Input
Amino acid sequence: GLGPGATIPSSQSGNTALNQTGDIRLELNAEYRFPIWSFFEGATFVDAGNVWLYNDVDNETPEGLFEIDEFHKQIATGTGLGLRLNLDFLILRVDAAVPLYKPWLAQSNRWDFDSINVFDSASRKENLQFHIAIGYPF
Output
């Protein structure tokens, strides 16, 4: 649901037809893994990145264009916790993550710590993301 650039995510804009791929991609990840018990591992992580358009051919998403003096303000950031089932030959991951920096919001509100409340159902619906995957992300 992110990008391109500062485009409002389709889940919040109501526009589900928006193509959210981009010509330019930037992704940064940091993950700390720790043993819990036997073949269970825990992880905490921080992710940052976004996608941008090199050209906006149809002029549909001007806020998605890559601009050298603006792109650093559009790098989204999120963090989370995960559980790993490490069987040596197979790794199953379950992650829960929340966004910290939302580039589609007004410049003064992009760091959005206040809206994260795991005890509020509306906040969980808007912010909490669950992911299930096989193998390590990197």
Observations:
- The helical segments are 10-13, 121-127.
